[in-house]
Write a structure and sequence with these properties.
Distance between the termini: 5 Å
CATH superfamily: MFS general substrate transporter like domains
Helix content: over 70%
Number of domains: 1
């Protein structure tokens, strides 16, 4: 296959100044952080929301994952087709405004169906963010720094999770879960305006003929091109299996700590002037945010180094770090005290986050420029539908089924630990992908 790097002229056009490249990457990372904040804040709001609306664990799983993921997945591919040929900056700005508005609407829900509909709106909006952002970043970043750049963008995951848990916990203590949703959604509206005014779309600067040619690739042609690359599909499947495990567990992190260590959280929270949910959100947010942030940055740098001898290095790294993270994440619910559970969780999250940059870089180097956003959308279609959609729901269903015999604490612990099994299958898929990548990419 031909080299998938942009030509020298394309790279020069897209990069502009190094100062702008850094600004654009930082702003896109901030947008992704708001994406994850609005997606993950429900984690720490789950228990008070469950009590207020009288929800079962399966309903929490459905609201946390399935309702969001079904529509995120359904609209993700057609939106990505636009991103492969249209104005990606405008798409990102509009998407940000939409999901931010629907996050605020979640706080107005009075029934389970209303909450489901609001989360669907969040999912539809967020579908327009990452495929377009990945495409933009790949266009203005040199190949040698690609994993590092995508890892920096992926800092939005831990930063958004930190803000969702910490700020969400503090807000729910002070003002209730409804106000937490509303206040979490509002900042995105302003950032959407900033993005639309300051980010550049390189396609606006290209010759009309070149732009017209870039718009001639049909969805059928894009899928035909990607079907010839088994390594891409193995990477996508591996990411989906990883997401099933991690999203299934992370949707209940707040519940696990509140149910297992509620007395400790109540005691120490009272000394600090916080409620149990507020302290849980703050500590979990800091532990997850700091460990995942460090893992994400380190993972990107190590992956770029590993890929110097062949791009299969992008797939080999997730094999090692995900396998190492599995026992930590699986054992977290069973740790005998709060501090040990927090340290175990942080270690698992750190290792897991080291896979973000190389996974996303694998997809971008395997896809040609004209189908990069589509390839990214397929990746997120699978990770959202299988991971975010089914992971939290499966954990919630298993927890409910075991509740009668084990009680609400151990049933959730076992359900979360059981989700770790699919992480091992993900490692196997990354291994098969690594064997194919160098020959498929050129």
């Amino acid at each position: 296959m031909p080299d998938h790097n942009p030509t020298e002229s394309e790279t020069s056009l897209a990069q502009g100044s190094e100062r702008y490249r850094r600004y654009a990457l930082a702003l896109l990372m901030l947008i992704y952080a708001l994406n994850m904040l609005d997606r993950q804040i429900i984690t720490i709001l789950a228990e008070p929301m469950k009590a207020d609306l009288n929800l079962a664990d399966w309903q929490i799983g459905a609201v946390s994952g399935l309702a969001f993921a079904l529509f995120y997945s359904a609209v993700g591919l057609p939106i990505a087709r636009f991103a492969d040929k249209g104005d990606r900056v405008r798409l990102i700005a509009i998407s940000l405004a939409v999901w931010s508005a629907f996050t605020a609407v979640c706080g107005l829900a009075r029934t389970f169906p209303q909450l489901i509909l609001a989360r669907i709106g969040v999912g539809v909006g967020e579908a327009g963010c990452t495929p377009a952002a990945h495409s933009l970043i790949t266009e203005f970043t040199p190949r040698a720094k690609l994993a590092s750049a995508l890892a920096f963008y992926s800092l939005g995951i831990p930063l958004g999770s930190l803000l969702g848990l910490a700020v969400g916990g503090l807000l729910v203590d002070a003002m209730g879960w409804r106000a937490a949703f509303i206040l979490a959604g509002l900042p995105g509206i302003g950032v959407a305006v900033i993005a639309s005014k300051t980010l550049r779309e390189p396609r606006r600067q290209r010759a009309k003929l070149e732009q017209a040619e870039s718009q001639m690739v049909s969805l059928k042609a894009a899928l035909t091109e990607l079907r010839k690359q088994p390594a891409f599909w193995l990477i996508a499947l591996a990411a989906a299996l990883t997401s099933f495990s991690y999203y299934g567990q992370s949707a209940f992190f707040g519940s696990v700590f509140l149910r297992n260590h509620g007395a400790v959280l109540k005691q120490f929270g009272a000394e600090l002037g916080l409620g149990p949910a507020g302290l849980a959100g703050l500590t979990l947010g800091l532990a997850i945010g700091i460990s995942a942030g460090a893992g994400t940055l380190l993972g990107g740098k190590l992956a770029d180094r590993a890929a110097r001898s062949g791009i299969s290095g992008y797939a080999k790294q997730p094999m090692a770090v995900l396998l190492a993270s599995t026992p930590f994440l699986g054992l977290t619910p069973f740790m005998p005290n709060f501090l040990l559970a927090l340290v175990t969780l942080a270690a698992g999250v750190f290792l897991h986050a080291m896979a973000y940059g190389p996974t996303f870089a694998s997809v971008q180097v395997l896809a040609t420029p004209r189908v990069r956003a589509t390839a990214s959308a397929i990746l997120f279609f699978l990770t959202s539908l299988i991971g975010l959609g089914l992971g939290p729901l499966a954990v919630g269903v298993v927890s409910d089924l075991l509740r009668a015999s084990l009680g609400p604490v151990q049933s959730l612990n076992i359900a979360c630990a059981g989700a770790s099994i699919t992480m091992v299958a993900s490692v196997v898929c990354f291994g098969f992908a690594a064997k194919r990548m160098n020959s498929e990419a050129g």
